[in-house]
From TrEMBL:
Keywords: Membrane, Transmembrane, Transmembrane helix. It comes from Lachnellula suecica. The lineage of its organism: Eukaryota, Fungi, Dikarya, Ascomycota, Pezizomycotina. This is Uncharacterized protein. The keyword Transmembrane applies. The chain crosses the membrane at residues 316-342.
Length: 348
């Protein structure tokens, strides 16, 4: 992460309370530009106020969760802490610097409130769960920053390439998309705001997978060029730019409030869909593809749309058609027999 000095933007709106809504487009762009180290203008042709909706729903949600337990009260407080976080300090060093730059009154802030302020800022900066709120349970993973290393090193340990699983026979075919996961295999997409949960299977029955949908955040923020690029390629793999995907995604987005930028990740060429092209997310892709391949259709709709096994599915379809035909013939014969009996009893 780049090193930043404390930047205090002289805008009254940045000094408004975190819980004050709605946040203006200008303020959104100021906040996002600082947190992502990427200039975002309200007049930009590719990024406007509406494009930031998905991220700022998350921003407001997290601020509300920490309400009353943090020292940070305004947007500017978050920007001040984020500037320190981007200096690769250890947690103890960060707190010392923070106290040193505050006034004598502010430097006496309680340690637990400062810790919570740091956790909240990390969540907004990295879109990754850090810390645990009282009386809150979550099935999602959390990033552990014990303070012995910098935040950057701790975050990297969660994302560094694994590649431990056998992947020689894994083929990421065109049919391997998020739409097919739900439509054919019955694997439900659980949209997540927690980056470290991307592509993670969430239950023991292998029926739910988490997908991080914040493409605009990924495109704008330089967490790590290699990691960001590969994550965007996993989104292009699962959400190819096709008419079918657009129709399916827009239906989901209408209720889930998803990042529309997801539909602009493009499509992968054959050579880009090779499993060896993925390092950070390879193991999770391997697991998800194996689950997808092993899931058998459980409804007629799934059977009709299943193209995973090519010609292997036709004997089953022929057998089903033959059974349906036999049932139909049987019904017709029963009707004819009933008519003949009726005529025998009532010849006239």
């Amino acid at each position: 992460m780049p090193s930043y000095r404390i930047v205090r933007v002289q805008q009254d709106s940045l000094h408004s309370l975190l819980q004050s809504t709605p946040i203006s487009v200008q303020t959104r762009c100021e906040i996002a530009s600082h947190l992502w180290a990427h200039q975002i203008s309200p007049s930009a042709s590719t990024v406007g106020g509406d494009d930031l909706d998905a991220y700022f729903r998350y921003y407001t949600e997290q601020s509300d969760l920490f309400s009353g337990s943090t020292w940070a009260k305004t947007h500017q407080d978050i920007l001040d802490i984020s500037s320190l976080l981007q200096q690769d300090l250890r947690r103890g060093e960060l707190k010392e610097k923070f106290r040193a730059m505050r006034t004598s009154t502010q430097s006496s802030v309680q340690n637990d409130m400062l810790e919570s302020s740091i956790d909240l800022t990390i969540r907004l900066l990295l879109m990754t769960r850090v810390g645990h709120l009282p009386n809150q349970f979550s099935a999602y993973k959390a990033l552990l920053w014990d303070g012995q290393v910098s935040l950057r090193e701790s975050a990297w340990s969660s994302f560094k390439p694994r590649g431990a699983l056998d992947h020689e026979h894994v083929k990421l075919t065109k049919i391997f998309t998020a739409r097919s996961l739900e439509r054919i295999a019955g694997i439900k997409i659980k949209w997540t705001n927690n980056f470290v949960d991307h592509l993670r299977i969430l239950d023991d029955d292998d029926t739910q997978v988490a997908i991080f949908h914040h493409a605009l955040f990924l495109e704008a923020y330089t967490l790590s060029p290699g990691l960001v690029d590969e994550t965007l390629r996993t989104l292009a793999l699962l959400f190819p730019a096709t008419d079918e995907t657009r129709v399916w995604f827009k239906k989901a987005a209408s209720t889930e409030k998803l990042d529309p930028k997801l539909l602009t990740c493009g499509r992968l060429r054959v050579e880009d869909r090779q499993i060896n092209e993925f390092k950070f997310w390879r193991d999770r892709l391997v697991i998800l593809k194996q689950i997808f391949d092993e899931k058998e259709p459980t409804s007629w709709s799934q059977w009709l749309h299943d193209r995973r096994r090519g010609l292997q599915r036709y004997p089953f379809l022929l057998a089903a058609a033959a059974l349906l035909f036999a049932i139909l013939v049987g019904i017709i014969q029963c009707i004819e027999g009933a008519i003949q009996v009726y005529k025998a009893i009532y010849p006239s």
